[in-house]
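User: I'm new to structure prediction. If I give you an amino acid sequence, what do you actually give back? Let's try with this one:
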Amino acid sequence: ALDYQETVSFSFVEARWEHELAGNPDPIRVLNPIAAPLSVMRSSLIGSLVSTLRHNLARRAARVRVFEIGRTYRRDPAVLDGDVVVAGIDQPLRVAGLAWGPADGLQWGTPDRGVDFFDVKGDVQTLLQPLQARFVAGSHPALHPGRCASVEVSGRRIGWLGELHPRWCQSYEIAQSPVLFELDLAAVLA
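Assistant: Good question. You get back a string of structure tokens that encode the predicted 3D arrangement of the chain. For your 190 residues, that looks like this:
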């Protein structure tokens, strides 16, 4: 209802995304990848959303609002082997979203302006209701310093919100910075 379209992508991603956008120097490698670029398991949904944005921009989309719900994979020695769990690998569900382009769809009632941090912050607050989220200045490898915040609920950090770093915008050939968020799905569903 917040004007986002759902996207579904592979859990296998490019190692470049993990290093640059997730800050993960040691991603989980796939022993027999389905394609050479899809050689590691994702630890963040941000790379997939940036890739979806690039795909839409190549088709001249004027406005993009996408979200994804999916598993991420990180090494965690505390995780024990089970029926659907692999020892040493944490597999939390996450929800992430990306907004790019005009803040509002094409209409005559308001002047055009690009989506900004506060538009997406409002979307995250709506998503988390009735929980009260706190936004604390922070840093993330994929996000612009000074335009990034960690999202906290009940004193616990549950995710991130911010603009894509200009370095990655240039590297991935994106003219205007999208605003992204990524949250722990269990906390959102609480």
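You can read the tokens as a compact description of the fold. Here is one thing that stands out. The CA atoms of residues 150 and 160 lie 4 Å apart.
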